[in-house]
Amino acid sequence: MRDGNENDPTDLPRYISAHEVAERAGVSRSAVSRTFTHGASVSPATREKVLRAAEELGYQVNDLARGLLANRSQLVGMIASDPETPFRALQISTLSRLLIENGRVPVLITTDRSETGQASHETLLRYRAQATIVLSGMPSKAFIDLAQRNGQPLIAVGRSEEGPDHVRVNNALAAQTVVQIFAARGMARIGLVTSAVGSPNLVERERAYVDAARNAGLEVVVERAERTDYEGGTLAASLLLSPQRRIEGVFCVNDLMALGVMDYARNMLGLAIPADLSVIGFDDIPQASWGAYRLTTFQQSAERQAREILRILDRRLSDPHAPPIISELDVPLIMRDTVRSPKPGKGKGEQTFTTARTTEGTEK
C-alpha cells in the first residue's frame, strides 16, 4: 500500500525508450538515433526495422532532451498579454499554426507586470528556446535585456527597444489618415480613446493623432481608461462624449474600445452612428464586421504578421550576427459604416495602405 507520498516514483509516467526500440528491432542503440536524425547515415533495411519497431511500441523521439544536449531546442516562446482578447487570440493561434507547420514547438507564456510573470520568462530562457517572440508591450524592458544578454534570438512585435529584430506597424500613417478623414468631413472637434497601458503602439498612435489634429487646426480631446478593452471603451466614452464637448469623430486605439464607444454612444446617449458620431478603430477583429457594428478600422493581418515573423526568424538563425532586422507593415483602411460621408469635394485626403516595407540593419 502506498503512503500517499506525491513523489512516489511509481506514479511517474513511463515512456518507451530508444533502447527498447533497438531491442525490438534487433539493432544497436546508435542505429535508432541515426534513424531519427535528419541527414544521418542508415541503411534502408535498418531504417525500416527501426520505424516498424517504433510504431509497434508507440515510441516518440525526446526532442526536448535532444535540444538540451545541443544547447538549442525547437521550442519557440511566445510572450503575450491579454491572450483572451480577439486580436491577441488570433495572433497567437495563427503564429502557433505556422510554427508547427515549420517543425517548431510553440510555447505560450502569458505576461503581466508581476514577479510571477518575470519568473516565467526566465524559465523559458533556461529551456534554451530557439527564439522568443514578444507579442505585446509587456513584459518589461528588463526581460528584453535579459534575453539579449543570454544570446537568445528575440523578435519584438510592436515595441521600440534597440537590439532585437522587430515587426512593427505604421501607426503614425494610420493616425494621420484618421485626421485626414475627419477633416474631409468638416469636423472641428475630434477625440481619441486610449488606455493607461502605455505600450509603444498606443503611444505612437496617440502622439501622431494629436499632432496631426493640431496641425490641421482641429480641436482634439484625449480620454483614457485603465485597460484597452470593451469596458475601457465605455468608460472613456462616458467621459469624452459630454454634450458640451460636441465631439464629432473618435479614433479608438483598438477595435474593442471602439465597440464599447459605439454601444455607449447609442444606448446611453441616443446618438446615431455615423450621423451624430463617426468612429474608427484599429485591428479589424472579427467582431468589427458584425452587423451590429460594421466598424471602419485599420486591418492588422495576423496571417501576414506571422509569416513575416517566421521570415525574420529563419533569417536570424541563418545569420546570427546580422544587424537587426526591422520590418514595418502598413495597415489597410477597411471602410464600413461608421464614418459619415465627406462634404462635396473634400474626400481627396483619404488613402488605403497595403504594402510592406522591410529594412535590415537600420533602426528607425
Automatic annotation (TrEMBL):
CDD domains: HTH_LacI, PBP1_LacI-like. This is DNA-binding LacI/PurR family transcriptional regulator. GO terms for molecular function: DNA binding. Residues 16-70 form the HTH lacI-type domain. PANTHER family: LACI-RELATED TRANSCRIPTIONAL REPRESSOR, RIBOSE OPERON REPRESSOR. Keywords: DNA-binding, Repressor, Transcription, Transcription regulation. Residues 350-364 have a biased composition (Low complexity). Pfam families: LacI, Peripla_BP_3. The lineage of its organism: Bacteria, Pseudomonadati, Pseudomonadota, Alphaproteobacteria, Hyphomicrobiales. Residues 338-364 are annotated as: Disordered. The keyword DNA-binding applies.
